[in-house]
Amino acid sequence: MPLVSLNGVTKSYTTPDGGTVVAVDDVSLDIDAGDVYGIIGYSGAGKSTLVRLINALEPATSGSIVVDGVDITRLRERELRQVRSGIGMIFQQFNLFSSKNVKANIAYPLKLAGWSKADIDERVAELLAFVGLSDKAKAYPEQLSGGQKQRVGIARALATRPAILLADEATSALDPQTTHEVLSLLKRVNEEQGVTIVVITHEMDVIQTIATKVAVMENGRVIEKGDVFNVFSDPQNPASQRFVGTVIKGIPSPAERASLRERHRGRLVTFSFRDGDSSQAQVFVDLAQAGLDFELVYGGINDIRGRAFGHLTLAIRGTDAAIDAALASIRSHASVTEIDATDEEGAR
C-alpha cells in the first residue's frame, strides 16, 4: 500500500465575484514509502495547493487522500492534528521564529508534543549534529546564512521523527552551491533516516538531483508522472518537454539549427542515447572508421542515479554516400535523427 495515495482529488475556491477557481483538478497519485517524489510545475500549476492537501492544511473539495492507511478527508480537526504530527514541512522562506535561537526553534514542536526537557535536549543535540550546526545552537536566525537557516528548518521538521517530509520550494531562495548542500542533506534524510520526501519545485535540476519519481502539473492537473529517468529521457507531454529542455539539450530547434549551420560545416545529425544503448564512444569509433570528419556541436549526456541518457548533435563531413552508409550501420545500435541531410555544401 502506498504511504500517500490521492484518488480523484479536486480543490476549488469561490472567488469574490461568485466564480470558481479549480486549483487542483482530479489528481490521482501514489507515493510509496522511501520515495523522494518530485512535483513540478510552473507558477499557478497547483503544486503548492496539492502539498497543503496532503498535510490537511486545506480540505479537499472532492476525492480521497489516504496517508499511512488513513483517509484524512474523513477526519475531524482533532484527529487531523495527530496525522500532521507524522508529517514534517520545510518552506522557501524558512519560517523560523526570529525571537528564538536555533536550539529553541528546533525544540518548539517537541515542546508542543509534550516531550520532557531531557528528551528534548537529547533530540535537539542529535539533530544539530545531523545537519552540521552543533556550534550554532545559541545563534539566532538573523545570524545565519540562508543555507544554515534551511538546515535549521530541516532539523525542526524532523524533530518529532515524521515518516513524511514535505519540501515546498525549499531551495528557491538559495544560491546554487547552497542548493547543492541542502539537496545533499535531504538525500541523507531519505537514505539514512528512511523519511519519505515530497519535493514541490519549479526547478527541474532539483528533480534531476534528488527525486526518484516525478509528477508534472499544469493547470491543476497531473499531465505526466513516473520514474524520473523515464520522464526525463523520454517526456511525452509538451509541458514536460519544456521542463526537461531547461536542463537537457535535445534535438536542436529550427532557430538553433540555423545558427549551427552558420557556424559549422557538415550534415547535422543527432544521436540519442538511453541507459543500455550503445555508448557515444562507439558512435565516434564508427564514424572515424568510416573515414568521416565530425565535431560535436550541440547537446550533452546526463546522469540520473547512475543511468545515462542524452542527445549529441554532430556536424559530419564527407561524401553523402559515406555518411549514409555509416548512419545505416549506426542505426542498428543507436537512435539517429538526421536533421540536416540536405546540406550539400557541408557534405563536400
UniProtKB/TrEMBL annotation:
Pfam families: ABC_tran, NIL. This is Methionine ABC transporter ATP-binding protein. Residues 4-244 form the ABC transporter domain. It comes from the Bacteria. It comes from Microbacterium istanbulense. Keywords: Amino-acid transport, ATP-binding, Cell membrane, Membrane, Nucleotide-binding, Translocase, Transport. GO terms for molecular function: ATP binding.
